[in-house]
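ugh ok fine here u go
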Amino acid sequence: MPCFRCGARQTDPVRGASPWRRAVRADHQVLVCPDCQAAHDWADDLDRCASCGSAALVCRLGEVECRDCGHTRDAVRDDQPLVPSAPSPADGLSEEVAAALSRVLRRGP
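structure:
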């Protein structure tokens, strides 16, 4: 899943906690890349908890839950795209898969 703001794709994870953050926008789970997190206004586009106002939300199994206060509500979804101008998740995917396969297959025993 790409970053909802810039469309950047995650790369192979390193050990430890991921620098990417999960969030909810229009009742859809989204990811925010480290570069977009550096922007001071990145959280302005996210959904907020109706109970405490926190943006620390997760969406799972048709429910949105606040990580800060535990408030839950049903997710209301529509078919509108979250980021109309963002690149499609499939853009460049075949090249990324080919590069990953090349890296893996060159690591012979």
